[in-house]
Amino acid sequence: EPSRAGWLSRLKEGLRKTGSSLAGVFSRTKIDDALYEELEEALLLADTGVKATEFLLEDLKRRVRETRTTEPQAVKGLLVDSLSELLKPLERPLEIGRHDPTVMMVVGVNGAGKTTSIGKLTRHLLEAEQKVLMAAADTFRAAAREQLAVWAQRADGSGVQVQGAGWVDIVSQQGGDPAAVTFDAVNAGKARGCDVVIADTAGRLPTQLHLMEELKKIKRVITKAQPDAPHEVLLVVDGNTGQNALTQVRAFDDALQLTGLIVTKLDGTAKGGVLAAIARERPVPVYFIGVGERLEDLQTFSAREFAQALLS
Ligand code: GDP
């Protein structure tokens, strides 16, 4: 991946806000209770949450004892080890191509970066010459549909975009029933020999109807169209909302049994610790992280790289 190095520096740049209060901790003169207290405060400030913070502190103290470390600067490396190990279970790539087609349902509250992330993901799939059908199941928001179409058809804004053996097309119906649009899209995906069907769902409804009920219905309808689907239920969360992101992971996971996360806006957040909280309290795999608004700013998640970037 040619953009990998550039991405890492952007992540580091972004997480500087999270890491700045942490960095100060290691410039203390000795390893004592005051250092650990300051570290605890910095971790909590970074939205690491009480449970993950407690876990990290205990794990770190053990590492300090076992390695007989006496230099505060060396504690930083040990914290990178602790954090990497905690985040490791979140590290899992999204696998495509085991089904005909792979059906992905993408959920998340408005503003989280759902449409942008789907666009970025679709571009990756197109570059891998996959045949992709998008279901614009957010039938209320005309903007969401239009934005999807723009991402899908960047080139000329009309018709299907083709790249080698791959292509991207979109199924939509303004004001239609979201579940019906999704059902049609899965069936069309099967009929057209697609590799991937992506259902973009609403993040807020104009009626009193409960969002989770609507999403559960869409999930049921996908299973009706293809018995082993959906293969992926992806939640897009805004990493910049910190502990709020964890609350969303819990709520959506309880209702829909998530298979993966896309954590956006990790460029420039002071709350990067939330990934540790997710790892400790609701470890749903992080397929991708968003570190900016450009196409190449959707990257696979690496626990160690993230821990290093956070503490660099
Ligand atoms: P949706 O309502 O969930 O579909 O959210 P959108 O995809 O429309 O994104 C909301 C805003 O967040 C837009 O201005 C995006 O450009 C921005 N955005 C999305 N992902 C990222 C990211 O990783 N980093 C930054 N800085 N902005 C992002």
UniProtKB/TrEMBL annotation:
Membrane topology: Peripheral membrane protein
Keyword Signal (UniProt): no
Swiss-Prot/TrEMBL keywords: Cell membrane, Cytoplasm, GTP-binding, Hydrolase, Membrane, Nucleotide-binding, Receptor
Protein location: Cell membrane; Cytoplasm
Domain of life: Bacteria
Amino-acid positions noted as binding GTP in the UniProt annotation, renumbered to this chain: 108-115, 200-204, 264-267
Sequence ranges assigned to domain SRP54-type proteins GTP-binding in this UniProt record: 285-298
Top enzyme class: hydrolase
Subunit-level organization: Part of the signal recognition particle protein translocation system, which is composed of SRP and FtsY. SRP is a ribonucleoprotein composed of Ffh and a 4.5S RNA molecule.
Family assignment from sequence similarity: Belongs to the GTP-binding SRP family. FtsY subfamily.
Protein function: Involved in targeting and insertion of nascent membrane proteins into the cytoplasmic membrane. Acts as a receptor for the complex formed by the signal recognition particle (SRP) and the ribosome-nascent chain (RNC). Interaction with SRP-RNC leads to the transfer of the RNC complex to the Sec translocase for insertion into the membrane, the hydrolysis of GTP by both Ffh and FtsY, and the dissociation of the SRP-FtsY complex into the individual components.
Protein name as annotated: Signal recognition particle receptor FtsY
Organism this protein belongs to: Inhella proteolytica
Lineage, highest ranks first: Bacteria, Pseudomonadati, Pseudomonadota, Betaproteobacteria, Burkholderiales
First-to-last residue of the parent protein present: 124 to 435 of 435
